[in-house]
Amino acid sequence: MPELPEVETTRRGLAPHVEGQRVAAVILRRPDLRWPIPAEISTRLPGRRIRSVTRRAKYLLLDTDEGAALLHLGMSGALRVLPAATPIRAHDHVDIELDSGRVLRFNDPRRFGCLLWQPAGETHPLLAGLGPEPLSDAFDGAYLFRLSRGRRAPVKAFLMDQAAVVGVGNIYAAEALFLAGISPLRAAGKVSPERYERLAASVKTVLAHAIERGGTTLRDFIGPDGSPGYFEQELSVYGRGGEPCKACGRVLREQPIGQRASVWCPRCQR
DNA sequence: CTCTTAACCTGGACGC
DNA sequence: TGCGTCCAGGTTAAGA
């Protein structure tokens, strides 16, 4: 469930406890997540020092000199740093034990997440086709406008396409489109350059603000220290179908777009 | 290419 | 209390 802000919140919480630590052991309790966990996680990771914890799109990378452990939280995954003796709970699939005596524990009820290995100097195939980071300078209105020409899919689906821009999921796509005043149903190829400037700026604003708040906690998400995120208190449209628009009072419309629940204000968003 | 659809898996909420 | 149904923050694979 985590979108970019939740993954970034996880990264920031993890980093101080994980960076510089040597991996003492890896315990796999459930070797089949979305994909089987490759042998390298058991053979290459133990004994290596974790140089840094980085993020690309919604993936987290534990970087070592030999390569990187590549983690995705899927819809329901969570990473926590815990004392080594912490009792195992349901869906605690992987432990990465650290020299500090603590353990990095991966819990994922739905098992849509993954734990893969990226050899040093290589780019994992899953990372190869990703679009730019939304908070980078490479992502702006001109980029969105150019890429969207000729596209007939709804702009909301375009915005959630990780090949177009990474990190924007169902919550923040809805919020950014509201902030930009653009209907999620509008064809991506029919949005003007001016409105794409507004959309790019809205995406950056919404994501940066959500990161400041520690992400959005709806059901599953908890930060690495066990605390919830506080951004849900500021959601304008997501999850508010049938309720009044906070800007104009009009009843918010709800309708699936691309098989994802979508909410928007028919007056504020055109 | 672009776009749509089904599928992966589990738990919680809701209606009867 | 129990059971069936629907829904959920993501992503890929397959097909049109």
Topology:
Layout: H1 4-18, E1 23-28, H2 39-43, E2 52-56, E3 59-63, E4 67-72, E5 78-83, E6 92-98, E7 102-107, E8 114-119, H3 125-128, H4 141-148, H5 155-160, H6 170-180, H7 193-212, E9 253-254, E10 263-264
Antiparallel strand pairs: 1-6, 2-3, 3-4, 4-8, 5-7, 6-7, 9-10
The chain binds a DNA duplex (16 and 16 nucleotides) through residues 1-3, 6, 34, 58, 72-76, 91, 108-114, 126, 150-153, 157, 160, 162, 169-172, 216, 218-221, 238, 258-259, 261.
Helix/strand/pairing category: alpha+beta
| Sheet with most strands: strand arrangement | 1-6-7-5
Q: What is the CATH C-level name of the largest domain?
A: Mainly Alpha
* Mean pLDDT over the residues: 94
User: How far from one another are the termini?
Assistant: 28 Å
The count of helical stretches stands at 7
Percent of residues in β-strands: 15-25%
- How many domain regions? 2
Largest sheet: 4 strands, antiparallel
Which bin fits the share of residues in helices?
Answer: 25-40%
Give the overall shape.
elongated
> How many E strands?
10
Give helix and strand order, one letter per element, not per position. HEHEEEEEEEHHHHHEE
Q: And the CATH topology of the largest domain? A: Helicase, Ruva Protein, domain 3
**Rg on CA atoms, Å:** 20 Å
The CATH architecture of the largest domain can be given as: Orthogonal Bundle
Low-confidence sequence ranges: none
